[in-house]
């Protein structure tokens, strides 16, 4: 029986989410990744790409290429919300799927052809996601993950491509070697130096030549170029940690600012824990100095999602970490050892504290995460300023 592997990728996911929140962004060159020159582009619209902007590019360079672009720092809560929505739609439809990133999925449809017709099933799932989320999404369907992923890239924006069994090599042949998933900038340059531009050239090369240049990766590149990939779809499981970081526009030694940012980040993460019905048992604080030396310290605690149990510990960890009078470039917090929260009554020390958090969370649900914050965090920017994204 031939395998049938579906790949789905939400198109310019962060930009698409922002456009759902603000329709005025439609058709505009939108760049996500921060507003300061020190940031990098996390995602950009197709309109911005026409100016030469791409993911991973310094914001400073993007502004030179596209000065009329709309630059947004990004909104982690919105992206998580829509990623979860799409994940739930897929989970309700498909028995086995892999979530490889916040906006990308592999789905194993092997054996389902006799019941539904895999092409029809894939197309209907895509339409369902578009209708229920409002987000554009593209798909590729083939015998394996590599060919399906490349097909999705060729299908974009907002379309679908099916590569039937037996035509994988001919489909891949005319494409640039840069389309091969494991070929990054360095490998691409090496291939170009060899005069290799199209996948067909790799298909016709003896694998020994590639092994001589790229070592053990040479064979993998050759196999992918020939549409050979037996890697399985790894069933999705919920993440075991959640984290947030902030890189400052200017390195700082302002203790009041640093503590305020940590408290605000801690509040946002504990709120997210409660919303997802999760508990954490391990807190990690991260500091990166202006000389790029990075230090972390963690502590284990009884399972909780309570601000009053977590935030004092965050501040204690920070105090024990910040031992050098050197400016801070980045701070971060990570919650790990996550488990389902069970009964909310068990999360907090007493019913009054539980009622307080329930009231605070209702306010945040209705008016946004900034609706209720500790006094020390009032002057600190919101969560959208803290996170750095990839996508």
TrEMBL record:
Which family does this protein fall into? Belongs to the DNA polymerase type-Y family.
Q: What's a single GO MF annotation on this record?
A: DNA-directed DNA polymerase activity
Question: Could you tell me the keywords of this UniProt record?
Answer: Cytoplasm, DNA damage, DNA repair, DNA replication, DNA-binding, DNA-directed DNA polymerase, Magnesium, Metal-binding, Mutator protein, Nucleotidyltransferase, Transferase
Localization, per the record, is: Cytoplasm
The protein's matches in Pfam families, at most eight in alphabetical order, are given as: IMS (PF00817), IMS_C (PF11799)
Provide the E.C. number(s) assigned to this enzyme. 2.7.7.7
Amino acids binding Mg(2+) = 9, 103
Gene3D superfamilies, alphabetized: 3.30.70.270, 3.40.1170.60, 5' to 3' exonuclease, C-terminal subdomain, DNA polymerase, Y-family, little finger domain
Cofactors that this protein relies on: Mg(2+)
| Species in which this protein is naturally found | Putridiphycobacter roseus
Tell me which residues are marked as the site Substrate discrimination. 14
- Where is the UmuC domain positioned along the sequence? 5-184
| One GO biological process term | DNA repair
| Coiled coil location | none
Q: State the free-text cofactor note.
A: Binds 2 magnesium ions per subunit.
InterPro entries reported in the protein's UniProt record: DNA/RNA_pol_sf, DNA_pol_Y-fam_lit_finger_sf, DNA_pol_Y-fam_little_finger, DNA_polymerase-Y, DNApol_IV, Rev_trsase/Diguanyl_cyclase, UmuC
GO CC term (a single one): cytosol
| Name under which the protein is recorded | DNA polymerase IV
Q: Which domain of life is it from?
A: Bacteria
Q: How does it assemble?
A: Monomer.
Described by its record, this protein's role is as follows:
Poorly processive, error-prone DNA polymerase involved in untargeted mutagenesis. Copies undamaged DNA at stalled replication forks, which arise in vivo from mismatched or misaligned primer ends. These misaligned primers can be extended by PolIV. Exhibits no 3'-5' exonuclease (proofreading) activity. May be involved in translesional synthesis, in conjunction with the beta clamp from PolIII.
Q: Write out the catalysed reaction.
A: DNA(n) + a 2'-deoxyribonucleoside 5'-triphosphate = DNA(n+1) + diphosphate
Active-site residues per Swiss-Prot or TrEMBL entry: 104
